[in-house]
Amino acid sequence: AHQSKLDFFCKLGYGKQDICKVLENLGQEALEDDVLKELIRMGSKPQALENQAQPSPLKLVARGSCSTSPGSKWLGEDDSDSSDHLRPIVIDGSNVAMSHGNKEVFSCRGIQLAVDWFRERGHMYIKVFVPLWRKEPPRQDSPIADQHILEELEKQSILVYTPSRKVKGKRVVCYDDRYIVKVAYEKDGVIVSNDHYRDLQNENPEWKWFIEQRLLMYSFVSNRFMPPDDPLGRHGPTLSNFLSKKPVLPEPKWQPCPYGKKCTYGNKCKFYHPERPQQAQLSVADELRAKIGVPLNLGKEEEKRNRLP
């Protein structure tokens, strides 16, 4: 039991010393959920993130080479696998599967549709979290459809099972939501779920901000996965900007001036004037002077004289 826990948290990227310390404090029979909580409380970070914090010497790699430095891998993927401009995606597998199955059946096809949608957009880092007991043969009270999809996604290193075990015939399940939020937070990615994780928001103020800003809700229209075009509301970013590390700002659309040629604001007018080729570089007074051929400097001297008492 000790070794399996050690291996599991090593896979998540935590140092052996930290894991052993926590297991000593909590005892060997401690649940994985409690161990994870304690690691977070201690401020222990996965080694992949620590490595990023330390500037490493530049290394030349031959073009086309796939070699990565040892120790930089976490959850089977390296940061360099993630596309430069697209955010990592963390999918709440249970939420997506139950939504696709109309809350009656755990439909694995829904997970596949969501994964395919993000793949087609070009996202390289996609993780799906599903409780381990979904591997078991389905029972009448918890039907599951297309279970083979889970196996295929696991082989592709996309699906991650959150631990569970049986104690005296009762299933002990780790809280998979905590894994989902933690991984998305540390990867600075996006959570795909229709759950609001209110308990986790109350638990950690940093997570609260992250869940509010990075939760991507969705709908299934027949067999089509559809996130909203405005994930944070009408005045928030577009879907493309929400999923991008470097948002692209829309080009300003010039609105024509409602007063047209009768406008008296000159170069202070915010609106577009098609009749002014240099977009109101001159004030109205200067424009009039230019029309009658009076030098601009002369006009300004006159204005100064008129202002003097």
Automatic annotation (TrEMBL):
| Keyword terms, alphabetized | Endonuclease, Hydrolase, Magnesium, Metal-binding, Nuclease, Zinc, Zinc-finger
Q: Which residues form the C3H1-type domain?
A: 251-276
InterPro entries noted in UniProt: Rege-1_UBA-like (IPR040546), RNase_Zc3h12_NYN (IPR021869), ZC3H12/N4BP1_RNase_Reg (IPR051101), Znf_CCCH (IPR000571)
Name the domain of life this protein comes from: Eukaryota
Q: Where are the zinc fingers (C3H1-type)?
A: 251-276
Task: Identify one Gene Ontology CC term for this UniProt entry.
Answer: nucleus
- Name the segments for region: Disordered: 61-83
**Pfam families, from UniProt?**
RNase_Zc3h12a (PF11977), UBA_6 (PF18039)
What cofactor does its activity depend on? Answer: Mg(2+)
Single Gene Ontology MF annotation: hydrolase activity
Family according to the record: Belongs to the ZC3H12 family.
Protein name according to UniProt? ZC12D ribonuclease
The source organism is Phaetusa simplex
Tell me the organism's taxonomic lineage. Eukaryota, Metazoa, Chordata, Craniata, Vertebrata
Q: Which gene encodes it?
A: Zc3h12d
